Amino acid sequence: MFDALKEKLSAVFSKLGSKGKLSSEDIDSAMRELRRSLLEADVDFRTAKDFIARVRERASSAEVLQSITPNERISAIVYEELITLMGKPAPLIISPKPPTVILMAGLQGSGKTTSAVKLARNLKGSHSPLVVACDLRRPAAVEQLRVLAEGAKVAFYGPEKPGDSDVLKVVRGAVKFAEGHMNDVIILDTAGRLHIDDELMNELKSIAEVLPPHEKILVVDSMAGQEAVNSAKAFHELLSLTGLILTKLDGDARGGSALSIRAVTGIPVKFAGVGENTDALEVFSPERMAGRIMGMGDIQGLVEKVKSAGIAETEIKSPGKIAKSFDLDMLLKQFEALEKMGPLEKIMGMIPGMDKIKGFKAEDADTNALKRSKAIIQSMTREERRNPKIIKGSRRRRIAEGSGTSVQSVNQLLAQYEQMKKMFKSFTGSGGSRRLKSLFGFGR
Ligand code: GDP
User: Fold this and answer.
1) Nearest-atom index, ligand 1, CA of 247
2) Quick one: 237 and 149 in the same domain?
3) Residue 7 belongs to what domain range?
4) Looking at ligand 1, which residue's alpha carbon is closest to its atom 16?
5) Which residue from 188, 276, 278 has its CB within 8 A of the most atoms of ligand 1, so it is best to mutate?
6) Pairing between β-strand 185-189 and β-strand 100-106 as defined by DSSP bridges
7) Among the atoms of ligand 1, which is closest to the Cα of residue 219?
8) pTM for the whole thing?
9) Does residue 293 surpass a pLDDT of 60?
10) Number of separate domains in the chain
11) 111 φ, ψ (degrees, to nearest 5)
């Protein structure tokens, strides 16, 4: 998502960049384009207007206009204002006195049931969550929650007999069950509806009376655009929500709801759903979102992936070493690590600067390409891997044959290697080590 917006913003900034010193007309026209891009991304009209007003005010200061790189200054302002727009991160409320009760509400199809299990799975490291099936109207909904919970190895509680329709009995039963099984977080998957109606609201209210929730989370489908924002407003009026989970942010939604839902409703987005699997949930981070929109990579996301793939932090801690000793053996190791980290297209998109490498397209980073690249390096001698400069014509032909690829593929891999080496080099020199470390989130 955000791809269209990202491209448009990048066009606005590069246009500004070609101008040298900026006049107030340049700012006007850039702001008009910026506003149009936001509206096309489905950002709410008022939110876009206020946003532009803030950016315009800051961008029009003499200090910015007279700087040597006004476009960079303005892009930094937009980045900061995007973060402000999405609000301060709001962590999940965990009650000091267990159990923490989380009520999940949402329209049918929003991803509520999946998100209930995702959230439980996310909490599993530090808590013992229990998911509870409270959508008794549809037996299939109970079954779906049970199956997802089982797959994610999360504790499940549901009606004793199929066909039970007393939701309050299930809620009371769940509290007893949680006590007996030491579950300190109870996640209630409530009934979904196609539209908000009184019956649903009354049911949610009566559940909240029997078991007052610490969190009332609405699950919202980001693909629904402004509709999502409107339904959040309606639920909020009736339920006083404490947080939102925006789902399907991995899809091709234009992203406007992610940008404006907090500004419009005042409810913080706590998590983002980024896939169908129960592990595809991210803590919602305004910095990360803004970084993605501005094409700055997703360092935070990358660091989380790196850590979960078990790649030693020390490898990242010494950028100087990387730059000096970056050879094809290291590249091979990186490829192997990448393979462990999951869908490559996602990972590559997270690396800052990757979109600037000539000819690189995230969608090209398919698993076959990775296997090919590995085979190419594996067909090289030790000497060649350490000192790629010696790989000339006849060696390239031999490597292509040995790896079952073509000379062109070998050339491509070597060119990629050279570009990556250059990228690492840009982090050496004065302050470079600190910059790379802070980029990866380790120390200062
Ligand atoms: P519910 O009716 O609100 O309980 O919705 P479900 O949890 O059954 O989800 C509806 C559909 O959306 C299912 O096919 C889910 O796999 C899918 N889904 C849920 N969250 C996400 C997400 O973050 N990304 C993607 N791509 N699909 C999702």
Assistant:
1) 23
2) yes
3) 3-86
4) 276
5) 276
6) parallel
7) 3
8) 0.71
9) yes
10) 3
11) 105, 20
